[in-house]
Amino acid sequence: MPLDLEFVRAQFPAFAEPSLEGQAFFENAGGSYACGQVIDRLTRFYTQRKVQPYSDYAASRLGGEEMDEARTRMSAILGVDEDELSFGPSTTQNTYVLAQAFGQMMQPGEAIIVTNQDHEANTGPWRRLADRGIEVREWKVDAGTGHLDPAALEDLLDDSVRLVCFPHCSNVVGEINSVTEITALAHAAGAFTCVDGVSYAPHGFPNVGALGPDIYLFSAYKTYGPHQGLMVMRRTLGELLPNQGHFFNGDTLYKRFTPAGPDHAQVAACAGMADYVDALYAHHVPDGTGDPTERGQVVHDLMRAREEVALTRVMEALKDRNDLRVIGPTDATVRAPTVALDLGRDPLPVAATLAEHGIMTGGGDFYAQRALEAMGVDAARGVLRLSFTHYTSDAEIDQLLTALDTVL
């Protein structure tokens, strides 16, 4: 059964919002629309539970239960243990805290591998560890395609490498990297892996347990939820790294790497993302009895199948144009629907003109300066980025392609 777009779009209040009527949203990589389930939970928490949680009185007890529910249900979808999932203010902040922990554990002369395909959030904090005497090695993309070749990683691995940091997919290149293959290479060399899933997770929550990385990070505001960073930290590594939280939280895995107090309401609202997954599963598999991980995988596959259809149309329209360069592969089956275009000119006026045609998008470097420069793009000028998700309709794709023909 293909994804029922009418049902999907009915779950998002933005599509019924009069002020957004006629506007096609193509900057989802910067943040998705929030589903109604998240909005309802956030509203309920602020109106009924806005007290210090985990006390005995009803409002406090219920608030704590809703926060716990978010962790329980989202960890199950991700295929990991409940206490291996933590919430922080953002993925950037979570990564920074992790870098401090590794910096305390590692010795001068030991090495970390980063890529130049990454968003700066999953490369900058690690690169700064060079100030502590830690060697930072760069796994470089192919200058023509933006591809990260696992064979090139093998050349960088030796027994001094402690961590390999890479994206599930880049926010400008879009190609989906093989997390399992890369993690296997790193583990064989005795290294851990840290995967930035921010640009992948909006296209279907992954089964992190099956993929195998030691750390997996993504942002809820890009997966139809509130502004929180979700971090999977597998137990073996989490218990090895030094505690970064309050000393009295050191024995609780999901608190060890969140030194800031949790945003109670936003953590609780993340359960709405699980509600959304369950709603899609129940609608498309009405007699289904799958466990949360299986339900998440079914919904993931429904989302990806829909996106491949829509992305194929976009790529067919763009790949042979001589007035732009598509960054990354043009095969929709191997990339996410985040499409960066090098126009050879300032993309901001183009984005502004597209807005006059009802196309909401943007231009710039998108914190991926290293990737753009590696591929010969002037990062100061940047790219036009067209990003969408499973809820983007055929009519919106039509609107985009028509507007691009007119504007370009």
Automatic annotation (TrEMBL):
MF annotations from Gene Ontology: transaminase activity
Record keyword Glycoprotein present: no
Record has Transferase as a keyword: yes
Keywords, comma-separated and alphabetical: Aminotransferase, Pyridoxal phosphate, Transferase
Stretches assigned to the Aminotransferase class V domain: 25-241, 303-400
Listed Gene3D superfamilies: Aspartate Aminotransferase, domain 1, Type I PLP-dependent aspartate aminotransferase-like (Major domain)
Pfam families assigned: Aminotran_5
Protein name per UniProt: Aminotransferase class V-fold PLP-dependent enzyme
The organism of origin for this protein: Tateyamaria armeniaca
